[in-house]
Amino acid sequence: MFNVEFISGNLGNGFIAVVNIMDWVKRRKISSVDQSLTALAISRIIVLWSVYIMISMFSMYPELKVTIITVKLTNLIWIISNHFSIWMATILSILYFLKVANFSNSIFLYLRWRFTKVVPVALLVSLFLLFVNILVVEIQIDMWMDQFKANVSYSCKLKKFAHITRLLVLTNAMFPLVPFTVSMTMFFLLIFSLWKHVKKIKHITKSSRDASTTAHITALKAIVAFLLLYTIFTFSLFVQLWSHEFEENIIFKNIFRVGIIAFPSLHSFVLIMGNSKLRQTSLLVLTALRCKIQGCAPLSL
Question: Which residue positions does the secretion signal occupy (predicted)?
Answer without folding.
Answer: none
